[in-house]
Design brief:
The protein is an all-alpha fold. The protein has three helices and no strands. Helix 2 crosses helix 3. The longest helix has 28 residues. The radius of gyration is 15 Å and the shape is elongated. The two termini are 17 Å apart. The relative contact order is 0.14.
């Protein structure tokens, strides 16, 4: 996958993830239907972890539940490692 396409994907999925977190935070305040945690983790795992991280910081959403936090950081670490491997693999002869 080209670097440009990957950058566009990461930006789009991060914006989408931020929007889903925002909607879930709003639903929590209003007492309406919530986004399942599994879906939030899936978005982060798909590359939206920067948007999730920003939403967690700015909206103060999903910051207390320990199992959620651990899975979030595992998905972020997995994404960083995957990107590093893809980048490193392209640089080696």
């Amino acid at each position: 996958m080209g670097a440009k396409i990957m950058a566009i994907w990461l930006a789009a999925i991060s914006l989408t993830t931020f929007a889903v977190y925002w909607r879930d935070k709003r639903a929590a305040r209003l007492g309406t239907w919530r986004t399942p945690e599994a879906r939030l983790h899936l978005l982060a795992l798909a590359g939206g972890w920067p948007g999730a991280w920003l939403a967690r910081r700015l909206l103060r959403h999903k910051t207390r539940k320990q199992p959620f936090r651990s899975l979030f950081w595992l998905s972020a670490l997995g994404n960083v490692l995957l990107l590093w491997l893809l980048w490193w693999g392209q640089r080696q002869p």
